[in-house]
Each structure stands twice: as structure tokens, then as C-alpha cells.
Specification:
single chain; about 70 residues; alpha+beta; 2 helices; about 35% helix; about 10% strand; flat
């Protein structure tokens, strides 16, 4: 099925730092997941940056309203 669609599985090295954290090998010509999410968000939201998204703004406002976060 994957061969018919020209899909390939690539593996990469991970260097363990702790039992829950590691450093992943970087591949050339790749993009961080955050960049991919930001680009897709801008496409869907007619150019609005994700940091100005309505959901993010609402969450920030809610967090600022919690005691001790004035």
C-alpha cells in the first residue's frame, strides 16, 4: 500500500538526555512542526498569526484571570 503511494518511512537517531527527554537528529530540508501548524493556521484563518488566534487569546485572558496571575 505504501509503495503504491511512494511513501517512505525514515528513522532518525535520538540521544537520551533523561528518561523522558531526548534530542532528535535534524534532517536537512525539514520544517519544525510548529512552523507547519503556523503556516496551515495562516492559510485557514486568512493570514492571521496563530499567536493572535481567538482560542489562544481566550485562553490567555482566562489564565490572567486566575488568582496570582495579575
Amino acid at each position: 500500500m505504501c509503495l503504491n503511494r511512494d511513501l517512505n518511512l525514515k528513522t532518525f537517531n535520538v540521544v537520551p538526555i533523561t528518561n523522558r527527554l531526548g534530542s532528535i537528529e535534524w534532517y536537512d530540508n525539514t520544517e519544525p512542526l510548529k512552523g507547519l501548524i503556523n503556516r496551515e493556521h495562516k492559510r485557514v484563518e486568512q493570514g492571521r498569526d496563530i499567536s493572535n488566534a481567538r482560542a489562544i487569546t481566550a485562553i490567555r485572558k482566562w489564565l490572567q484571570g486566575l488568582p496570582g496571575n495579575e
